[in-house]
Design goal:
The protein is mainly α and 158 residues long. The protein has helices at residues 8-11, 13-32, 37-51, 54-66, 71-75, 88-101, 103-106, 110-117, 122-145, 154-157. It is 70% helix and 0% strand.
């Protein structure tokens, strides 16, 4: 993992800036459509975990902490089906995150669509879908470029 890779955000910053602007628009759509930061960050963390993106997982764990999500809840995101800490809305969002992350396997199945659609409004569903699309795009940029995730300094952990 020490080999140097093309850093897409530096090599073609215009495309990366457009992706960043897209992500900001998605954040605004989420807020406008009733998706709070807690729910959005749970989705961002889970997609990043599923993709194996340590860099984005760290970014969104930090944002989740700022949104008031406790460490116990974050630790259980990967095992949400066996946990009772998530609301019905959060469980539906986590299931949708999985469907979008592994979209090439089954698409968004009718079962998932119907379960999630029974909990979220059309606007909420759309906002969460765009959030999944956004983070999956970032995960691919970061994983392809092997963005480093160094250990935190003791001061940064405090």
């Amino acid at each position: 993992m020490t080999e140097t890779r093309v850093h897409l955000s530096k090599t073609e910053p215009t495309a990366y800036q457009a992706l960043d602007a897209f992500a900001k628009t998605v954040g605004q759509i989420c807020a406008a459509n009733g998706i709070d930061d807690r729910l959005k960050e749970i989705v961002m963390i889970h997609c990043s975990q599923l993709n194996g993106c340590a860099y984005c997982t760290r970014v969104h764990v930090d944002r989740a902490t700022a949104a008031g999500i406790d460490a116990d809840t974050m630790m259980q995101i990967a095992t949400w089906r066996e946990s009772d800490v998530f609301t019905d809305r959060e469980q539906a969002a986590l299931e949708l995150a999985e469907a979008f992350t592994f979209i090439s396997e089954d698409g968004i199945s009718d079962d998932v669509y119907n379960r999630v659609g029974a909990i979220f409004t059309e606007k909420e569903y759309a906002a969460l879908s765009w959030a999944c699309i956004s983070i999956n795009a970032f995960n691919r940029v970061v994983i392809a470029g092997r963005y480093p995730v160094p250990p935190r300094t003791p001061q940064a952990q405090a």
